[in-house]
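Contributing new records

If you add data, match the layout below exactly. Sequence lines come first and carry their own label; structure lines follow with theirs. Keep one chain per record. Anything else will be rejected by the validation script.
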Amino acid sequence: MIQSIQDRVKLANGVEMPWFGLGVYKAAEGEEVIGAVRAALKAGYRSIDTASLYQNEVGVGQAIRESGIPRDEIFVTTKVWNTEQGYDETLAAFERSRKRLGLEVIDLYLIHWPVREKFLDTWRALETLYKERKVRAIGVSNFNIHHLETVMNISDINPMVNQVEFHPFLTQKPLLTFCKAHDIQLEAWRPLTKGEIFTHPVVQALAKKYGKTPAQIVLRWNLEHRVVTIPKSVREERIQENANIFDFHLSPEDVEALDGLNEDRRLGQDPDSFSFDF
C-alpha cells in the first residue's frame, strides 16, 4: 500500500524512486518554476521531473539548492530531447543538463521520445552515463512495447522506467502488463487529462463518495495501479491539493469502474506517428 508522499518504489537496480512527484512541463524558467518547486518541496514532494525541452532546468536546480533539503532526499529526473539524440550528441546534451541543474549526479535520465534510427544509439549513451555513475538510473519515455523490445534486444541494461501518457481514458493495460513483467516501472505524465475527466459522472460520483476532489480521485487511481505519478502545476494550492491523496484508498470495485472509462484515447502524441523533426 502506498500510504505516504514519502513512499518509494525500488527500481530494478535497487534505486528508490518516489511514487509521487511534481512535473514542471510549461513552467516558465525563473520565478514561476522556482516557486512551483519550492511549493512542492514544502508540501513534502521529493521528486521533480524536468527535461531539456522544458527550458527550466536552471530554476529547478536553484529551487532544490535553496530548499535546504539534503540532496540525497530529492529525486531529480531530466530527459534528452529529440534533436539532441545520437550517441555523442546525447553525452553532450547530458552535460548541458547537468550544468544547468547544477547537480553532479542526475537520479533518472530518460530518452524523451523514441526517435527512429536514433534511439538505440541514444540508449547506448545512457548506458555509458550509467556505467560512469553520472546517473543513478536510466529509462525511456513514450516507448511502446515494440520500442522497449528493440532496446532490450541490444542492451546490457533494460530501461528501469517508462514514462508515458496514462489516465483512465488511456489505461494502456498491455503496456502496463509488459512493464511489470520485465521490472520496468511505469510512470504517468498528463495523469489528470488537463481536467477533461473531472466532469465525468463516474469521477464525480467517486469524488462525492470519498469526499475528495476529482483530481485526487484520478491521482489515487494511478497509485492503486502502482504507477509513479507526476502531476504538473505552478499553483501552490493545487500542488498541495494534488498531494492530499495518502489518507484514503479506492476500493477494487471503484478502481475497476475507473478502468472502465478507457477509450484508448490519447490527449498527447502517439509515439508511432509523432513527428520528431524538431
